[in-house]
Each structure stands twice: as structure tokens, then as C-alpha cells.
Amino acid sequence: MRPLFTAFLALFALSALAQEPETALVGEWWEESHRDAFELRADKTATRRVFATGDEVQGAWSLPAAGRLRFAPEDGSEPVTWNIELKDGRFTVPIIGDARVYVRETRADRDGRLAATLKRIHEISRTLRDHSFGSSQDAGLLASLREFEARADGLLLTLAGSDRKKQDAYVAELAKTRPDLKRVLEKGSRGGRLTSCKNNLKMIGVYFALYESKYKKYPTGLEEIWKPDLLQDKSVLRCPATGEENAYEYLWPSKGDASAPDEIMAYDRFPHADGTRCVLLFQGRVIVLDEDGFKQAREAGKTEGVEPVDEKD
143 or 2, which is more confident? Predict the structure, then answer.
């Protein structure tokens, strides 16, 4: 119960408290790193939600003094009182080594931010789709894409919980209320995970090219691109569609720079739930193959004559 309710930090708008404490604090408060949220109601009841576990804790809140918030859990646990600080428009509960910052936002506003974030992911992905890798522009777009993907993941966690099926269902419902973004949102978080997988491979391809440009040879394994002056974010080795770590297999180009454009350079080691796999080609494109197409391409070492899964927008 202790750190749980640190979240009630938001509730301490010092200046606001002096004027209209109840009306100033009633509402939903969301922790910025997506760990938890608190809802403070006008009848002085409160709910804390822990997003990673889906737990909810009920209780009552009060303001025993300016800059202090008291939370009494409904289960009879000992009440907890927090000191709070207001800084730069955010409410902070200072904890040694782990200060938490909360902002007040309605669920509708949060839905709007999720929709806008998914739209941006879709736009960047379309820009990247047919690019050959190796350009600094691609590297910048990929970095931007990963930032937006992380933002979408956090928003989905807070709105729908950690279960992927529930996240997919939530986005599907959101699409019904946003006709302007219906096409993008109908792809849902599942489509987003496929996009993320493709772009992990796209990023790997970018750094293969950068490695070759610097060392005049291709790496012999994925571990060789993890260098201070190259790729440092090892999360790209985790497939968001399967959840597997070290999810991608690398194939050294058989003829170096003279390798065929459609030669397979890297691919998903494990198929996605729908049986598809993402495949990085030597030319830098990433395509999606069903299991039969993948087996045919893997045996041949290239994708000539293999039809990718249809990926119309």
C-alpha cells in the first residue's frame, strides 16, 4: 500500500489547495512513466490503478494540511500521508531515488493522444516502407518511430491494461469513434506490433549498412553492431509481435556488396501468431511472408518467386 499511493501526489496543487481544494483535486491523475493512476472523487473516495498488474485499490482521501495528502485504504491497512511538491505544472511526490510526477487528464483526452500517436506511427511507417536502408534520414525516422511506439505502448497500458487482446479490442472500439482515423486505427495494436517488428529489422538493416561503411566488411553476427558509435538500443532484438528476446536471425551476405537485392539478410526466428514472419532483404526492404512462403525463400536464400503477404494501407 505504501509507495502505491505516492501517486496521490497530483492531488497537491499547493496554490490551488488554498483556494478550492476539493474542486482542484477531483479528477484522474496519471503518472508520467505509466506506472499507475489515481482517481479522486468529490465524495472523498479514491481508486488507484496499477497498470502492469491490473490491480485496483479502493480507499478514501483527505487533506489534513496544505501540501499533504492522506490516503486510507479500504481494506483497513494503516493510512498513509504524503508530502507533495508542485513544480513546472506537475505534481510531484518526492521519494528518495524515485520521485513520481502526475498530471491530470481525462480519459477522452488520453484517447485523443493515443489516436494521434497511432496516426503518426502509421505515417512514418509508410515513409519508410519502400526505402533502401543506409541513409541518415532513415536512421532519424526509425529513432522517431521507436519514440512514438513507446509512447503508444504506454498509453495503451494505461487505458486497456497489459493484455494484448484487450489492447486490440480497445483500439478497435476507439476506431468506431474516430471516423477520420478509422483506417489507421482499425489496424489496431496488433498491426502496430507487426509494424514494430518490421521496423526493428529495418533498424538492424540501417546499422548493417553503417557497419559496412565504417569497417568495409559486413558483420559476422548481430552482436557486432552493438557498439558505442553504432546501435546501443538492444531492445530492437526483441520482437514485439512474439515477445521473444533475441528474436532475429542474421545471414551473412553470400557475395558481399554483389549479393542479390532480394537475398535474405535477417528474419524472425519465430512465426507471429498469424503464421507470418518479417524478412529483411539485402536491398534494405522488409517484407512479410506467410510460413509457406518463408520456408520456400529460406531454402532458396532469396525471395524471388515468393509472394509477400498483402500489406495495403
Answer: 143
